[in-house]
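Standup notes
- DV: blocked on the single-chain target, sequence here:
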Amino acid sequence: MTHFNQIRKAYFPAVVLCLFSIIILMPADAHAGYLDPGANSSLVQWIVAGAAAVGKIKEKIVGMFKKSQK
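- DV (later): unblocked, structure below
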């Protein structure tokens, strides 16, 4: 398995989960583009959590390719 395929396989579930969550959380009809403060803070929370998840996944991927130094 190539390096690109390993990364794609690792990130794919997280990307699908984020996109699915955004679709579910967005209202069906936004009146004049208005989002209440609760929706904005929820969106910011999802972005921060996604960034943290990507950081942890990246850490695991980099750890797989580092040589152990003994």
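- Follow-up: The CA atoms of residues 27 and 33 lie 10 Å apart.
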